[in-house]
Amino acid sequence: MAPSLLATAGGLLLLFSFSSAQIRGDNLATCSPNDGFGKYCPTTCGVADYMLNYWARVDHELDSMEKSLEIVTNLTREADETITYMKDSTTSAQKSQQDVYFKKSSSMLDDILRFEKAIIAQEQQIYDLQNIIESNERRMGELKQLSIQLQQKCTEPCQDTVAIQTTTGTDCQDIANKGASTSGLYYVKPINAKEQFLVYCEIDNFGRGFTVLQRRRDGSVDFHKDWNQYKNGFGYLSPDDTTEFWLGNEKIHLLTASNTMPTVLRIELVDWEGNKKYSDYNMFRLGSEADMYRLTYGFHFGGDAGDAFDGFDFGDDPSDKFYTSHNGMQFSTFDRDNDKYDGNCAMQDGSGWWMNRCHAAHLNGKYYTGGRYTEKDAGEFGYDNGIIWVTWHNRWYSLKETTMKIIPLSRITAGGGQQAGAKQFGGLGDA
Ligand SMILES: [Ca+2]
């Protein structure tokens, strides 16, 4: 057990040395909820938790081992006393030189032999236990050493190996308006936000700053997450836009709800043949957590990928389109069922999404390399659970890459209309 713990600790140390290259979006229970995006060395929390857990367990094991040792020692002492007593009795019996005593003393000698054997066995046990204690103490020493090294590492200021741009603003367009012209990681603080948080800003040659909400690229991040993870965000932000993430419902709410100007949600999609399409929704907004992060938008604003948010007539039932539309739907995760279905769409499809009964668009779905999948591939429930935009590819085709990003409406129209937006595809799929 202990060697594997050591190996794990070593692994942690390694993880620690390399983790500064990426920014964790996970929120550990012992970290403050706002330590998600934008804080370095988040593994410090993990290391501290791990060490704390480990000490408690080892202490407990040592305690119980010491107790066993004490019991064995007591037994030995009792046996010793018995032998002494028996030896004394034998001696006095032999002295008396009487037959009856002689017989008694023979059986006593047998008893003594038996006891001596027992003592030898117990002494061996004690010896083994002492060895275990010694080797545990040695390991404790090594772990203490490791813990000291880790603590020293943790007290050092984390090395900023990720380039974070210095301009800040309420969102990426605000940042672009202040002259920032490089895509990358920026801190934003929407009007109602208590704290700033990190986002990836996609800034194009027209001076347009898209704030990116979601990225799927290669299936490296599992999107089967619970309510709190979708609330706080998960995955990784990267300065070169190579990683997958969900920015977090609370942040998306803050970015959209406090905006007085209409916001466009742009959805960009890439299929497995390398084709790219997009879809725009104007007046996009995410409600608060009290309203279960309800999705609302004013209207579909164009794009060659079609309007999957409006639902789709699959041909199964006349109500298909109505029950697969997404405008006005609350957010659901497997542990928070806010959908319009008797069952639990998010559980069946393994994602967090604005589920109806259930979906025509499903960009947080399961990643299927190659695109095409079947009911069998979909696992336990067998429903269409891929990355779906059904007005482009059917529900048994899972897209290769997706992006969800927002920008003020004025910037879309000022940039030469929607087509300018389509041309500036943000390098999606070109990486
Ligand atoms: Ca339900």
Automatic annotation (TrEMBL):
Q: Which residues form the signal peptide?
A: 1-21
Give one Pfam family.
Fib_alpha
Please state where this protein is localized.
Secreted
List, alphabetically, the GO terms of the cellular component aspect. fibrinogen complex
The protein's GO terms of the molecular function aspect are: extracellular matrix structural constituent; metal ion binding; protein-macromolecule adaptor activity; signaling receptor binding
Q: Which domain of life is it from?
A: Eukaryota
InterPro entries per record:
FIB_ANG-like (IPR037579), Fibrinogen-like_C (IPR036056), Fibrinogen_a/b/g_C_1 (IPR014716), Fibrinogen_a/b/g_C_dom (IPR002181), Fibrinogen_a/b/g_coil_dom (IPR012290), Fibrinogen_CS (IPR020837)
GO BP terms: namely:
blood coagulation, common pathway; fibrinolysis; platelet aggregation; positive regulation of heterotypic cell-cell adhesion; protein polymerization
Keyword match Mitochondrion: no
Positions of the Fibrinogen C-terminal domain: 163-410
Q: Describe its assembly.
A: Heterohexamer; disulfide linked. Contains 2 sets of 3 non-identical chains (alpha, beta and gamma). The 2 heterotrimers are in head to head conformation with the N-termini in a small central domain.
PANTHER family from the xrefs?
FIBRINOGEN ALPHA CHAIN, FIBRINOGEN GAMMA CHAIN
Task: Please identify the protein, giving its name as recorded.
Answer: Fibrinogen C-terminal domain-containing protein
| Origin species | Salarias fasciatus
